[in-house]
Amino acid sequence: MSLIKPFTGLRPVPGRESDVVAPPYDVMNRAEAKAMVLGRPWSFLHVSRPEIDLPDDTDPYDPSVYAKGRENLDRMVAEGVLGRDPKPCYYAYRLTMGEHVQTGIVAGASVAAYDADRIKKHEFTRPVKEDDRVRQIDALNAQTGPVFLVYRADPTVDGILAQKAGTAPDMDVTAVDGVRHEIWVIDDEETVAQLSAAFEAMDAIYVADGHHRSAAGSRVGASRAQANPEHTGEESYNYFLSVIFPHDQMQILDYNRVVRDLNGLSPEDFLGRIAERFDVQASAQAVRPGAAGEFGMYLGGQWYRLVLKDAFRSDDPVKGLDVSLLADNLIELLLGISDPRRDERIDFVGGIRGLGELEKRVDSGDWAVAFALFPTSMEALMRVADAGEVMPPKSTWFEPKLADGLVSHVLD
Where in the chain is the domain with CATH 3.30.1760? Predict the structure, then answer.
């Protein structure tokens, strides 16, 4: 089977894009989702977060939630809000956020390649979230939340996508957060074949975001293959919905940390202990790290610049990440937080919120100290994946986010 495959997308009919487009299902809570759909009966949140149409005390994993999602999707099709393309296509997808622009391809990504680690991962998944996505795909008989994949920039693919993006888009919508989403249908057979061949020549592509969705796609594919005595490997369930961008167009923001207390240390003792492994310098301004191994720290109304001493750095793909260096040399060593996935003394703040959010958290008195990190690079992420390793939690914050509802993959 090929690494990627064109498919007959289900998408808004012309003029309905702005009615449908929605943020990813997992970037807001139920109350926020309910507020977002006020006056928007065709928002795709009715499909991706269907609990908003049920009583507030409904368990989000209750079977009625998945059934409601299917009912809402079927209604959008029946009312002519969504329509299916007549032939298998790829789709060029451009995201514009301020000055940042990235252009990728919407495609079906091979479950077999994922299982063989040709589509490489860098995170662990949680069973409860995997199970949720499996139930959602099975109920809808469609994949509606794309997996965010990355390929090493390729002249053939990049050239085709750039040429296509130089024409008038088939869909063009600016979401409420100001991000512009443009889609171009690629359906001529020669171009489709060129794109398929270019991806087939690649050694690997990488999961950037969507580890639970890709794992669920693999599980659904396996269960349907087992249940199908006529299974050939070419069925749509052998591929999962993905958007694949070149690595050199990615924008990864910092993913910062706040900690609730100083683990019994006074501020003076804490600073003294930090100085054993870091060069510490007070700053009159908020500190945004300018290089790997450099950190900003906000403590007691004061910013500090921390630079890790060379003796404590590492060339290991995982241990050398800034999130690991901070954890190993400060957060675990001095603050006693060894399991950031479960320890409620630590929280994570996406860089999209700015350094002011770190000041706000600490100044509130609810948190004792905040750390600003240098963003993880795409090259570093790929090194971890190539080594078959796993990144620490909350290592990357990708912006802009993909939209839900613009192209969905029906499992025929």
Answer: 255-374
Coil vs helix vs strand at 356: helix
State pLDDT tens for residues 284-321: 999 999 999 999 999 999 999 999 999 999 999 999 99
- Tally of CB atoms within 10 A around 261: 12
Q: Which long-range contacts link 399-402 to residues 24+ away (Cβ below 8 Å)?
A: 399/97, 399/100, 399/251, 399/253, 399/351, 399/352, 400/95, 400/96, 400/97, 400/100, 400/102, 400/177, 400/179, 400/251, 401/23, 401/24, 401/27, 401/179, 402/24, 402/93, 402/95, 402/146, 402/148, 402/243
| Cα–Cα dist 325/176, whole Å | 37
Q: Is residue 174 helix, strand or coil?
A: strand
Q: What's the pLDDT tens digit per position in 242-280?
A: 999 999 999 999 999 999 999 999 999 999 999 999 999
Question: Which CATH class for the 255-374 domain?
Answer: alpha beta
- Sheet of 278-283: strand order equals 278-283, 302-308, 294-299, 369-372, 255-259, 346-350
Q: Quote the CA–CA distance of 134 and 376 in Å, as a whole number.
A: 30
Q: How far is CA 27 from the centre of its chain?
A: 10
Residue 147's closest CA among 108, 89, 199? 108
pLDDT in tens, 367-411: 999 999 999 999 999 999 999 999 998 899 999 999 999 999 999
Backbone angles phi, psi at 131, to 5 degrees: -60, -40
The pLDDT value given to residue 1: 67
pLDDT, one tens digit per residue, over 64-104 is 999 999 999 999 999 999 999 999 999 999 999 999 999 99
